[in-house]
Specification:
By secondary structure, the protein is of the alpha/beta class. The chain is 36% helix and 13% strand. Strands 3-4-2-5-6-1-7 form a 7-stranded parallel sheet, with helices on both faces. The protein has a 7-stranded mixed sheet with strand order 8-10-16-13-9-12-11, sandwiched between helices. Strands 14, 15, 17, 18, 19, 20 and 21 form a 7-stranded mixed sheet that branches. Helix 9 links the parallel strand 5 and strand 6. The longest helix has 24 residues. The protein is globular, with a radius of gyration of 29 Å. The N terminus and C terminus are likely disordered. The structure holds cytidine-5'-diphosphate and magnesium ion.
Length: 877
């Protein structure tokens, strides 16, 4: 039989006719692949093969197993040349003890779940096991997805180092960059990158193994990848190019994957990797306010062991870092004794300056918990730290009362860690601290699961996290500091002491802990999903509602996403016939439109993708690309409204802020350009920065974030490539410096922005409509009942144009619009027909169903009643 299964490790032996056959089959399968997803409530037949059957056709070299199962192939062992130190360190990792069990399971099953606490070696070791067992070859590589870019980059570097291989072989790919080559055999990437690859090649044929790492984080793309892979794995089986799927989780809560019979028909084996229990420490109780507490803890921890402090956001991290550096001065030439002396002095000076601290967190005490406390169910927050949001956690300026404690503190080597930090600064935490100092990392949630910092013995956990919350329907986001989940707290505690007993200091009582949610919700359940839905439609998954999500997103979020995509023209609108219910059902399974296909090729949110798709007109593309890049990269400008530690610093921040406001006015341009508002400021900032060569110095002087500007540059390049390949005749190239747009172009740009951000239209409440004081200077939007305002940082804050579109609404003290541009009312009917009533305004619009248009959501006529019929100024198609 020519069609025998050939071993994965011997691809060279395959005859060419077999290759061709495979290719044919692959194409066939690709055609049918997404119809499976559309139909499939149930997993398809091919998947229901009993396990024994699968064992008979091993897809990889099988190790001689403990149970002495006859292996079909001799063990293939690809040698790896590791240094003795690396080898020694590896052998200490718990996962090494499980190598054989793991490899047997992988050899014998298409899908395997591996659970092991953070630091047990999953991310760094499993790819090595596979490599050594011959899973990579010229026609297939190992892919590993990470929810965070930081992890994808640093893990690829770590594994390359451990295996003594070059970055050409162990590589990474994240949205803006990568070092993948033809030689790449192990590829770390973000989950979004793999999702894009599925769009180009549904069968992921270049991979032999796909590892979904950090599955417990339940990031939206990870969830969707698992759903897609649950279908891709059996399809690959069908075309006789088996693919192995490995799902790795830091917690044992994997039943959403394993017990979900919509996902996998055969329950995949779950392998658990556990640490040996270390000794525990007795409880200890201290009472003092937050902030001061951290000092107190640090003062009486001794030894050289590292300390990891969890705070909520970037501003808090910086603030504490500065205060710690003052309190535990570290200079290169300081001897330990000198430092201790300085600490004494500092403590004395602090004692004199006694102030009453008003901590923001309502904590009365905290408990010290031994690290290896029973509960194995660990999970993590899915949210990363968020820089510069308006919620700030005041660290207080509390005093410490620790003077009786033994003082053996060494100078601290204090390092911040958060996701917006420049990569080279992030990498510092992995290096040993200078001799005679102790490492103290002050981190946001980013250190919770993705990264393991070596040598940490003490963890200080504030118990809170700064999270972005979205309204399910309107997408309005707000930042809130909330308590973490119990799983998250345990995860944080678990970051301490893997090689010796560790301690976790929780700045909250066990009573507070008991009130925590057990787990945090998967990301897909609490954010807008329109980008995801567009990607899925581009994969021809029309009935999104039937997709095997590990946890399905809420129905209202799905409906809102479909409706937005219909309004943007990305989906083909269903005919408005039949009953309301039928219409609604039709709306939930619209196919993608040609415009939608173009939009799906751009790696940006659908609203921005629409803007790009329209911008070929009037040579607007380079500007739209820049605006979209700037809007996609969050936090272009430095945040100067952060709490300062001293008066001197307050003055400095004030000066910098004034300078930024001044220069933003210049970037906002003159005449018609000004109406483009904050988007013109973005254009001006990017142009000016590139003109100056995009140096850290220029950014520092002008209130720009250097890292953000580099990302804008990268994204501009990438979007230009995407635009060129979507519309072959554009022949666009990036001119970084870019001339300012002409007045006419600025006007077209405003229309383009209106067409893309249409549902983000707002109209100022007129004097005669003022309901009460709270509506003064307020805007009405189509999505919200409450007044919204232009953000004070906007250049249009004082001008108050009648109609504006906004990038986003954030909720702080009020609902604020950010990224605001002025639009002209006469454009609205032409560019946003789905959002207008072409008729007399209704006196009392029904709340959710409009009989005039048959549309499900009725837009408040009061917002639009002045819209008149005039000739369109730009054509949408
Ligand atoms: O994925 P998992 O959390 O199970 O563990 P890992 O990331 O593979 O880390 C295994 C070990 O490698 C940990 O003890 C880390 O401290 C160490 N490691 C390191 O020293 N430097 C890195 N850049 C990454 C990991
Ligand atoms: Mg890991």
């Amino acid at each position: 039989n020519k069609r025998r299964r050939s071993s994965e490790s011997e691809p060279e032996e395959e005859s060419s006719s077999e290759e061709e056959e495979k290719e044919e089959q692959k194409q066939e399968t690709e055609k049918s692949s997404t119809s499976d997803l559309n139909a499939a409530e149930k997993p398809e037949e091919g998947m229901k093969k009993p396990v024994a059957d699968q064992q008979a056709v091993p897809t990889a070299p099988v190790c001689q197993t403990a149970s002495n199962k006859p292996s079909c192939k001799p063990v293939i062992f690809v040698p790896v040349d590791r240094s003795p130190e690396i080898q020694e360190a590896r052998l200490k990792l718990p996962i090494l003890a499980e190598e054989q069990v793991i490899m047997e399971a992988i050899n014998e099953n298409p899908i395997v779940v591996i659970c092991g606490e953070t630091g047990s070696g999953k991310t760094t070791q499993v790819p090595q096991f596979l490599y050594e067992a011959g899973y990579t070859s010229s026609n297939g590589i190992i892919g590993i997805t990470e929810p965070r870019r930081v992890a994808a980059v640093s893990m690829s570097q770590r594994v390359a180092k451990e295996m003594n291989l070059s970055h050409r072989v162990v590589s990474y790919q994240i949205r803006y960059e990568g070092n993948v080559t033809d030689e790449t055999q192990i590829k770390f990437m973000t989950d979004g990158v793999l999702l894009k690859e599925i769009q180009k090649d549904f069968l992921l044929s270049k991979y032999k193994v796909v590892i979904i790492d950090e599955a417990h984080e339940r990031s939206m793309y990870t969830d969707i990848l698992i759903g897609l892979l649950s279908r891709i794995v059996p399809l690959r089986e069908k075309v006789r190019m088996p693919l192995k799927l490995i799902v790795m989780s830091a917690t044992l809560r994997v039943e959403d994957f394993t017990e979900n019979n919509r996902l996998f028909s055969v329950t995949p084996p779950v392998i658990q990797v556990s640490f040996l229990s270390l000794g525990s420490v007795p409880d200890d109780t201290l009472i003092c306010p937050f902030g001061a507490e951290i000092f107190q803890i640090l003062f009486f921890l001794w030894g050289l062991s590292g300390i990891l402090v969890f705070l909520t956001g970037q501003a808090e991290v910086h603030s504490l870092c500065r205060r710690l550096r003052k309190a535990f001065p570290f200079q290169k030439n300081n001897s330990a004794e000198e430092s201790v002396e300085e600490i004494r002095k500092f403590k004395k000076s602090r004692k004199r300056k006694k102030t009453t601290a008003l901590p923001q967190i309502d904590l009365d005490n905290y408990s010290v918990v031994p690290v290896d406390e029973g509960d194995e169910d660990r999970d993590a927050e899915t949210d990363d730290d968020i820089a510069g949001s308006d919620v700030d956690l005041d660290l207080g300026d509390g005093d410490s009362e620790e003077d009786e404690k033994p003082d053996s503190s060494l100078p601290l080597y204090v390092l911040p860690l958060y996701s917006l930090l420049a990569p080279e600064k992030q990498a510092k935490v992995f290096r040993p601290p200078p001799p005679g100092t102790r490492l103290c990392v002050v981190a946001t949630n980013v250190a919770e699961t993705s990264l393991t910092i070596p040598g940490i013995k003490y963890v200080v956990d504030c118990g809170k996290v700064k999270k972005r919350f979205y309204d399910k329907i309107t997408g309005v986001s707000s930042f809130r500091v909330t308590w973490i989940s119990q799983a998250s707290a345990n995860q944080r505690a678990g970051r301490a002491g893997r090689t010796e007993p560790g301690h976790c200091y929780r700045l909250y009582s066990s009573a507070v802990f008991m009130d925590f949610e057990k787990f945090s919700a998967p990301e897909i359940t609490n954010r807008p999903v329109e980008d995801l839905i567009l990607q899925m439609k581009a994969l021809n998954i029309e009935k999104v509602i039937n997709f095997p999500f590990p946890t399905p997103p809420p129905a209202e979020a799905l409906a809102a996403a479909e409706e937005l995509l219909i309004a943007l023209g990305a989906l083909k609108e269903p005919p408005l016939t039949g009953r309301l219910k039928e219409q609604q059902a039709a709306k939930l399974s619209c196919p993608i439109s040609p415009l939608g296909r173009v939009m799906a090729t751009f790696p940006v949110a659908p609203r921005y993708a629409k803007m790009l798709a329209l911008s070929k007109q009037h040579d607007c593309l380079p500007y739209t690309i820049t605006i979209v890049s700037a809007m996609t990269v969050r936090e272009l400008f430095e945040e100067f409204d952060r709490p300062a530690v001293s008066e001197e610093e307050t003055a400095k921040l004030k000066g910098k802020k004034a300078r930024l406001l001044q220069i933003q006015k210049i970037w906002a341009g003159q005449g018609a350009l000004q109406k483009l508002g904050d988007l013109m400021v973005m254009l001006g900032a990017v142009g000016a920065c590139e003109y100056a060569g995009c140096t850290p110095k220029f950014c520092e002087e002008n209130g720009l974030r250097y890292k953000a500007m580099l990302e804008v540059r990268r994204l501009r390049g990438q979007l230009t490539t995407a635009v060129n390949s979507a519309c072959a005749d554009t022949g666009l190239y990036v001119d970084p410096k870019m001339k300012p747009p002409t007045e006419a172009q600025a006007t077209y740009l405003r229309q383009i922005v209106l067409a893309g951000l249409g549902d983000h239209l707002a109209r100022r409440v007129q004097a005669e409509e003022l309901l009460d004081e709270k509506w003064k200077n307020a805007y009405k939007t189509a999505l919200l009942d409450d007044p919204v305002f232009i953000h004070p940082s906007s250049v249009l804050f004082k001008q108050l144009p009648e109609f504006v579109v906004y990038q986003e609404i954030v909720e702080t003290t009020k609902l604020y619009m950010r990224g605001v541009s002025a639009v002209e009312p006469e454009w609205i009917p032409a560019l946003l027909p789905p959002y207008c009533h072409f008729g007399k305004p209704l006196e009392n619009p029904p709340p959710s169903y409009c009989p005039e248009t048959g549309r499900i959501r009725c837009h408040r006529p009061s917002v639009f009643y002045r819209v008149s019929w005039q000739l369109p100024a730009v054509e949408v198609d």
